[in-house]
Design brief:
Blueprint lengths: L5 H25 L9 H8 L1 H17 L6 H8 L2 H7 E2 L15 E7 L9 H14 L3 E5 L9 H7 L5 E5 L8 E5 L2 E9 L6 E9 L2 E9 L5 H7 L3 H27 L5 E6 L7 H6 L4 E3 H5 L2 E2 L13 E6 L2 E7 L11 E7 L2
Parallel strand pairs: 2-3, 8-9
Antiparallel strand pairs: 1-11, 2-14, 3-5, 4-5, 6-7, 7-8, 9-12, 10-12, 13-14
Helix pairs in contact: 1-2, 1-3, 1-4, 2-9, 3-4
Length: 349
C-alpha cells in the first residue's frame, strides 16, 4: 500500500476545507431569500458569511500558488456572493459634495450607544454627546438609549438640548430604549414592542419644508455571540440559540417592513439589525423601493460592529427612493461596541 506524502496530506486537508467553505458560501448566497423558520441551517451560513468570504480569498490564493484547479471553488464562492461583498466593501473614494447646498442636505446619524456603558464614567457619555453635537445631524436615531447611571437627569438632558424635538422610549424591565431626535417638528409618533423579546421599533413623522418624512428606528434580536461566549455555553446550545434568534429577527424584520409598507410619505429607516446584508432580515427590509445608503455612497469597509475584526456590518440607514444618499461614513469611535453611521441625503429631482 502506497504511503501518502506530507504534501499530499496537506492537499487533501486543504481540499476538504475548500469544499466545506464552498458549501457555506452557497448557503450564505441564498440565505437572504429563505425564511429561517423553513431552513435553519441556511441562516447559520449567513451568520458566518463574512468569515466564509475571507476564507475563500485565502484558499483561492493557496490553490493559485499551488498552480491547481482547486482555485475555482473558492473563486466561485466569492463570485456568487458579489452582492454581499459590495454591501460591506465599496471601492469608490469619498467624494466632495459640491452639487448641493447645505440647506438641501438632510444629515442622519444612526448609533447604537450601548446604554452609555461601553466606557465607564462621565467621559464615555460626554464624548458621544460631543461627537453628535459637532456633527450637527438633522435627524438622530439611537438604539440602547437610557439615562447613564452615573449622570443625573439634568446632565443627560443637557447633552442633547441642542436638538429641539425628541421622541424617547426609555427602557423598562422587558425592553431596551430607543430614541429619535430631530431639528424637524414631530407631528406623530408610535412604537411597537416585539413579542417575547427585549427589542422594539419606534417611528416619528417629521414636518420638513419638503413635506412629511417618517423616520423608523428599529433594534432587532441580537445574535447572542458575545453573551454565549461570556457564559461559556457549549457549541450545540450556542447553535440552538443562534438559530432561534435568527427566526426572531426574521419575524421582527417582517414587522418593520409592514410598518414601512403602510407609510404613505417618504421614509428613512435606521437601526441595529444585528444581521448582515446577506440575511433574510436585510432582504426583507431593503425592498425594491428602499435603498441602502452604503451601497449608494459608502466607501471602503462598511463594518459597523467593532468586534469580530470589524467584518460585520449590522447597523444601517435605508431610505425610500425619494432620497439619494450623497455621503455615507462609519467613523471608528471607541465609545460603544458599534460604530456610528452617518448618511447625508438629498431629495431626488
Amino acid at each position: 500500500m502506497k504511503r501518502l506524502k506530507g504534501i499530499e496530506i496537506i492537499d487533501i486537508i486543504a481540499f476538504l476545507i475548500t469544499l466545506i467553505i464552498f458549501i457555506l458560501a452557497v448557503g450564505g448566497s441564498i440565505s437572504g431569500y429563505v425564511r429561517p423558520h423553513h431552513f435553519k441551517w441556511l441562516a447559520i451560513a449567513n451568520n458566518l458569511l463574512p468569515i466564509t468570504i475571507i476564507s475563500s480569498i485565502v484558499l483561492m490564493l493557496f490553490w493559485l500558488i499551488r498552480r491547481s484547479w482547486g482555485f475555482l471553488l473558492p473563486l466561485f464562492s466569492i463570485i456568487i456572493n458579489t452582492y454581499t461583498l459590495l454591501s460591506i466593501f465599496q471601492f469608490r473614494g469619498e467624494k466632495e459634495i459640491i452639487a448641493y447646498n447645505n440647506q438641501d442636505i438632510i444629515k442622519v446619524i444612526n448609533y447604537n450607544i450601548h446604554e452609555f456603558r461601553h466606557l465607564s464614567g462621565y467621559e464615555g457619555a460626554a464624548n458621544i454627546a460631543e461627537f453628535i453635537k459637532e456633527e450637527a445631524p438633522d435627524i438622530l436615531s439611537l438604539q440602547e438609549y437610557k439615562n447613564a447611571t452615573h449622570l443625573n437627569s439634568n446632565e443627560m438632558k443637557g447633552f442633547f438640548d441642542h436638538i429641539p424635538y425628541k421622541y424617547i422610549v426609555y427602557p423598562d424591565d422587558n425592553h431596551l430604549g430607543l430614541a429619535i431626535m430631530s431639528k424637524y417638528k414631530i407631528i406623530r409618533k408610535g412604537k411597537i414592542d416585539f413579542e417575547d423579546s427585549a427589542n422594539r421599533v419606534i417611528w416619528a413623522d417629521l414636518s420638513t419644508d419638503k413635506g412629511l418624512i417618517r423616520v423608523i428606528n428599529f433594534h432587532l434580536q441580537t445574535t447572542s455571540f458575545a453573551l454565549q461566549r461570556e457564559r461559556g455555553e457549549g457549541l450545540f446550545k450556542s447553535i440552538s440559540q443562534i438559530k432561534h434568534n435568527n427566526e426572531m429577527r426574521a419575524t421582527q424584520a417582517e414587522e418593520v417592513k409592514l410598518l414601512a409598507d403602510t407609510t404613505a410619505h417618504p421614509i428613512i429607516i435606521c437601526g441595529d439589525m444585528n444581521d448582515t446584508p446577506s440575511s433574510y432580515a436585510y432582504t426583507k427590509i431593503k425592498v425594491e423601493k428602499v435603498a441602502d445608503g452604503f451601497r449608494e455612497a459608502g466607501s471602503k469597509m462598511g463594518g459597523t460592529y467593532r468586534g469580530m475584526f470589524g467584518l460585520f456590518r449590522i447597523d444601517y440607514i435605508f431610505h425610500s427612493t425619494e432620497f439619494k444618499s450623497v455621503r455615507y461614513t462609519t467613523p471608528d469611535k471607541e465609545w460603544s461596541d458599534h460604530k456610528p453611521v452617518i448618511s447625508e441625503l438629498v431629495y431626488q429631482n
